[in-house]
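[job 0412] stage=complex_fold ligand=S-adenosylmethionine status=START
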Amino acid sequence: MEETKKGPLGNPQNTIDIIKKHQFAFQKKFGQNFLIDTHVLDKIINAAQVTDEDCVLEIGPGIGTMTQRLAEAARHVVAVEIDKNLIPILEETLAGYDNITVINQDILKMDIPKLVDDYNGGRPVKVVANLPYYITTPIIMGLFESQVPIDNLTVMVQKEVACRMQVGPGSKDYGALSLAVQYYAQPYLVANVPSNCFIPRPNVGSAVIRLTRHQNPPVRTADPGLMFRLIRASFNQRRKTLQNGLNNSPELDYPKETIAEAIESLGMGSSVRGEALTLEQFARLADWFSAHDAKQ
Ligand code: SAM
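[job 0412] stage=complex_fold status=DONE, emitting structure tokens
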């Protein structure tokens, strides 16, 4: 508790002190860049809209900088950290709190719906994380696709990834991630974060983005799984036409003529590229193929 009495961990000197005291060695393979800016922490906590009724899932607490702040705002915090060398540090930095559970696990291998059941009776949780950048997409998509009950996710990601999550057709950053995120959630850019807000400094820019889960998806489609196969096929080969993308996909098995007919049903020509289609148009395309399959 010595360190926490000196002030918040987000203060750079306190972070350096605790790292030195425990002779902690940063592991690049775990994407370890610890936040050392209290203003950025404030922005994350405010954007996440955590109240004293909330259960928060924090992914990758590091030395517990954000965990302390979350515990002050929430009813309970469950923090999942992969690096066993951080566990003794967390035991020290979080010793004064009785509403935090630290779990030493790989978040990608956890049964998160069960975790939410155990700690919040299956009610929606808030997810807050300064994510390890090497697994941003699998973490976010895993949370959405496994139907974990979530109110919102407020996450630090690479700046380019935050950009991809928000854009629509016409932008070079538009892709499968934009469509997937926007199908499940409403993105809101909270802040851009320069690399001097972390130790060690990452060699990319960062941004905090909040993804508020839609109650109902913004488009309806009979088979969302098929829609996502079509989306992946369209963006796998970016410079190819939609026709060729769908034709070459290992996940789809439609004859050329059927694909041409489907694209025509959208009122589009054979030279159209997948990146020109909106989420709504992908939903219509999926429904056309579903109706076609039902007739076979
Ligand atoms: N939250 C801390 C902060 O803001 O200072 C640390 C953020 S650091 C970018 C990412 C954290 O995620 C590290 O503590 C790292 O060890 C942890 N981590 C990396 N991969 C993980 C995984 N698969 N499951 C759980 N934690 C992971």
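The longest helix spans residues 279-295.
[job 0412] exit 0
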